[in-house]
Design a protein that fits this description.
single chain; Jelly Rolls; five-stranded antiparallel beta sheet; four-stranded antiparallel beta sheet; about 35% strand; Ubiquitin 3 binding protein But2 C-terminal domain-containing protein
């Protein structure tokens, strides 16, 4: 059989087409596989424990940009949640319920068995960055929370506190109309209809935003007295890499 230059060209094209259609990455290509993270949630108390395998690096994926500018949203989860109980007004040596993730609010009558929560965020951009920090509330899954009462809506106050500063009921400013060093920051509507509306649009409520500071501290307490039964809301604040994410976070940089 006589092999002409045309025959060599046809054979070369067939070989090249076969190579380009291979279903596997080429030897010098890279592929990022997200690490496996296990999360165990206890629905009876609304808590999650997370385990990340050893030698695992969590890598954030960089979004596409127009080549000149990009805004990447940064999410920061609380460094501490402290339950404040009016029945133990001076207690600040340890965390009640022995956890730094528990969010708990209760109110039948003001100051009568009332419970509030202090939520603190650290490692935020300094005020000189001129960035805005937005407080968001991710509604907990119904099976991972306890909520009851006619209207468990709650107020959110900003206060000036040092990182890790002790907190007790005596430091709660909510029932003083904000107090001398507290400002009403926003209100979360806990009525059933309002919660259903929020879930229908993704389940995330933006409480308010403010100028970033390295530490932001919030105090949260029920807005209304209970009628018949106390207004009550309890869940564990869960941030990445645990799952499902729920509770509070601060978003900045976007």
């Amino acid at each position: 059989m006589l092999i002409t230059p045309t025959t060599y060209l046809i054979l070369a094209l067939l070989f090249l087409n076969h190579a380009l259609s291979a279903p596997y990455p080429l030897p010098n290509s890279t592929s990022t596989i997200p690490p496996t993270t296990s999360s165990t949630c206890n629905e009876s108390i609304g808590s999650c424990n997370t385990t990340t395998p050893a030698n695992t690096t969590l890598t954030a994926h960089t979004p596409l940009t127009n080549g000149t500018h990009q805004n990447i949203c940064q999410e920061v989860y609380p460094s501490d949640l402290t339950v404040l109980n009016s029945r133990y007004p001076d207690h600040n040596s340890t965390h009640l319920h022995h956890t730094t993730q528990l969010f708990m609010l209760r109110r039948q009558l003001a100051n009568d068995g009332e419970i509030a929560t202090r939520v603190q965020f650290n490692d935020l951009p300094p005020a000189t960055s001129n960035q805005s920090c937005r407080l968001e509330f991710i509604l907990p899954r119904p099976s991972l929370q306890r909520i009851s009462g006619l209207n468990p809506s709650f107020n959110v106050y900003t206060v000036e506190r040092a990182p890790g500063a002790p907190a007790s009921w005596n430091t709660y400013q909510g029932n003083a109309g904000g107090g001398e060093d507290a400002t009403l920051f926003g209100t979360v509507n806990g009525e059933e209809e309002a919660l259903a509306r929020t879930r229908r649009v993704g389940g995330v409520a933006a409480v308010n935003e403010t100028l970033c500071r390295e530490t932001l501290t919030f105090q949260m307490g029920m807005k209304y007295n209970g009628k018949g039964v106390p207004n009550y809301w309890e869940f564990s604040n869960v941030g990445l890499p645990a799952w499902p994410v729920q509770g509070f976070r601060v978003v900045h940089g976007c």
